[in-house]
Amino acid sequence: METVKVYVDKILLGVTAALFLIMVAVTTWQVIARYVLSNPSTITEEFIRFSLIWLSMLAASYVVGKRSHIAFTMISDRFKGKNKVGLELFIQSAFLLFSLAIMTYGGGKAISITMSQLSPSLGIPMGYVYLSLPVSGLLITFYSIVNMVQLLKKDKTTPMEKWDSVEYEKAGEVL
Amino acid sequence: VLTMIAGCGLNAKAGDQVVLRFAYASNAPPVKEAMAEFGRLLEEKTDGEVIVKYYPDSQLGGERELIELTQTGAVDITKVSGSALESFSDRYSIFGIPYLFDGEEHFYNVMENEEIMDPIYQSTSDLGFVGLTYYDSGQRSFYMKDGPVESPEDIKGKKIRVMQSETAIEMIELLGGSPTPMSSGEVYTSLQQGIIDGAENNEFVLVTAGHGEVAKYYSYDQHTRVPDIVVMNEATLNKLTPEQREAVHEAAEESTVYEKKVWKAAVEKEKQMAIEEHGVEFNEVDNTPFKEAVQPLHDEFKNNEEFKDLYKAIQEMSGQ
Amino acid sequence: MILQASLILALVFAVLLAVGIPIAISIAVASLATILLILPIDIAVFSSAQKMIASIDSFSLIAVPFFILSGIIMNNGGIAAKLVDFSKLLAGRVPGSLSHTNVIGNSLFGSISSSAIAASTAIGGVMVPLQEKEGYDRKFAAAVNIASAPAGMVIPPSTGFIIFSLISGGTSIAALFMGGYVIGVLWALAIMIVSYIIAKKRKYPVVTEKSNLNVKKIVWEAVPSILLIFIIIGGILTGVFTAVEASAIAVVYSFILAFFFYKTITLTQLPHVMAQAVEMTGVIMLLIAASSLMSFAMAFTGIPAALSSLVLGISDNPIIILLVMNLLLLLIGTVMDVAPAILIFTPIFMPIATGIGIDPVHFGIFFILNLCVGTITPPVGTGLFVGSSVGKVKIEQVLKPLLPFYAAIFVLLMLVTYIPQISLFLPNLLGL
Ligand code: NA
Ligand code: NA
């Protein structure tokens, strides 16, 4: 399972990084096109918006794999040993609730009602945009399960205090 | 005990008040008044059995999201631009054709013709919602930064902001301009910075959205009239008693009559404010050369299997 | 119903947050629980899913990941050391010059990297030990670093302003940015004035190594980084590109700088750089998506209207209303991160502010300034935590030396609140 995770990480990073750089290129192109060519396109804006949605959702699931979503750990840091494992399992199950109920089930429902709705510029079904939710939802589910498995394994080998809790540094870096 | 329970049940039944959730995006004051009027009329007609609760000013999301929420029944009623409905039913794209209507009268006649509008209102039925009525959203014309538009010559080479719509882009291209699609939030700054030379909309962009501060020329070429449409979740509509359903339709229609009246007064007020506060100049335009330039767009719809009957029916009502 | 909804929302959120569930997930689950009061489960999860997507379905929002990426490229390019040297030149030989160096460094770095915490770590990491070596009190040095780092959050490019512009219905990003420059510089000045007074009183040594500085080399190395700031402002002001497009230009420029000028990043390091950017993008975008879900849950149950009539019920005097908003925002800022706070509370506070005649640009700056101050106020705050760990001092130890700085920041906050011209004169002057 952990080897699978390594591959999933790699593929996910490859896809998101590529998407990221393409978006930069397209936006830069838009500025250049406005000056060099007078041939604007409705496609760029919609393309970038939809790419941003996919990038954001996939990146969010990548972060679950890296265990870097911001959390307050003041109370949970005081938990030790068995209690700590219990708490961590509870935390991971909140991820499961979120990823399965809202992202996968809710996202699936959104797809089913928007497959016939066409986007104004690209003319693609809006369902393809909403598809980013269940895909990322399932990825988060996968990562949560891997996290849980690792957690139970580590419980036997290393004391829980060593388990890295989510760092505060991550929080501020975003703003 | 039994009678008590039964009694309670009955009471609950009789007092069962239906609350309809009506959400809408940002709107000009007259349209908001009309939506409030709809709720007032509906409550009055049903003796308070049906009341309307409002979620104004994009609180629950933009127009596309509101339509989807209405689709699922999270929201019961919403009012959106006809162009937002294009993605859900291509019937609505007919209103995007420039100079589809030869003027206001033609527009009203078509919008109040059941034979034309009912199929359009019902075209989203399989998606879970239907149209109830329309609201007048006025005409759209060009407004520019550097000078008035008197003929298509004045559009030539100019960067004009358009909505994300293929028809709108094609229209600007046919007029010789350079269409620049962008979201409405970016228009003000882009006008100011000179990223665009002008845009097109109804008069409410001038003071309400503040564009009159940077674009001082509003030219009445009147290229499009896209109606606003009130849509309702069909399951909610079907759950109502026949009397209540009738009341919904009556209230909707009467609110439209009301909206047309307050809309006109509000447009006049907005114009006066634009002149006094920002010194905006308004000018009338002979739109014959504009109509000629956009003919290729008409031909597309005229020759399209799907649209030609609808197009013809609308054109036949011209000049009546 | 409103009371019930508020209680469920607040309680579920507080409990989940307290046990250590990530903020975004806590927000989303609490919101779903609240929506379930009104809607059946299948419609509730659909609405939640839709809100998450709709909130990030925005062209303007690409500026957020783009500025994050350009910041990371610059950061990996090792500009911190170059900016420290450059700041030393600017700080000169006035009393407390090393503190001033730290403040200037934080502001420049915060502007270029769009990240206050990165500034606090990169600049403070160099400057706090250096100050201690020169005989400054370590706790004081840490306090200077903590108090000045958030200035980089208001100095553009600032993701906070971009998100605010979006949520407030298109308040001009360019105008917010220009106002942000003024407030950010005033913030830095306020910290420098306090440092000057304290350094003079304690007779801290003026930096002695000045003669060793190779002025030409320092300027030559720092200027291309600082040029990024001018490309962004210049491009926006001259209308060459929009504030959103500026973010893409920033990425391209920092790539060129790191690959060809500084040669600090090679192709083999690119995956590492991208991984950092993807990770931060994932964190912030999920926060944005979840926060808008909470906005929806609140609007759906009528909480914003109730809150706003509560605030307006206290007084109809604009001065009092602004003060109440100040207090509420500071309180929110103490426990909540800046991005979710903007997303959740703009729809509530904005109508109140415009209702009493506050200019949207002024409000945006006032609003974000408040939330940024919140990141360094106890009991919780990312700025406070990171700053004390960088300075290797306990939070309890750094609070006392922070007091004079808090006082200076509070004065700034009051000035910004009650004198709109401070926020507005530069945007007005530039015709924004
Ligand atoms: Na910044
Ligand atoms: Na705080």
TrEMBL record, chain A:
A molecular function GO annotation: transmembrane transporter activity
Any Gene Ontology biological process: C4-dicarboxylate transport
Subcellular location(s) of the protein: Cell inner membrane
One CC-aspect GO term: plasma membrane
UniProt KW tRNA-binding keyword: no
Entry keyword set: Cell inner membrane, Cell membrane, Membrane, Transmembrane, Transmembrane helix, Transport
Transmembrane segments: 12-32, 47-64, 85-107, 127-146
Domain Tripartite ATP-independent periplasmic transporters DctQ component: 23-153
Topology within the bilayer: Multi-pass membrane protein
Entries under Pfam families matching the protein: DctQ (PF04290)
Superkingdom to which the source organism belongs: Bacteria
PANTHER family associated with the record: 2,3-DIKETO-L-GULONATE TRAP TRANSPORTER SMALL PERMEASE PROTEIN YIAM
Family, similarity comment: Belongs to the TRAP transporter small permease family.
Name of the protein in question: TRAP-type C4-dicarboxylate transport system, small permease component
UniProtKB/TrEMBL annotation, chain C:
Keywords assigned by UniProt, alphabetized: Cell inner membrane, Cell membrane, Membrane, Transmembrane, Transmembrane helix
Name listed for the protein in its UniProt record: TRAP transporter, DctM subunit
Cellular compartment(s): Cell inner membrane
Organism, as annotated: Halobacillus dabanensis
Entry's Gene Ontology molecular function annotations: transmembrane transporter activity
Keyword Ion transport: no
Membrane topology note: Multi-pass membrane protein
InterPro entries according to UniProt: DctM, TRAP_DctM
Major subcellular site: membrane
Membrane-traversing stretches: 28-47, 59-84, 104-128, 140-167, 173-198, 218-237, 243-262, 283-307, 319-349, 361-385, 405-426
Gene Ontology cellular component list: plasma membrane
PANTHER family given in the database record: SIALIC ACID TRAP TRANSPORTER PERMEASE PROTEIN SIAT-RELATED, TRAP TRANSPORTER LARGE PERMEASE PROTEIN
Domain called TRAP C4-dicarboxylate transport system permease DctM subunit: residue spans: 12-422
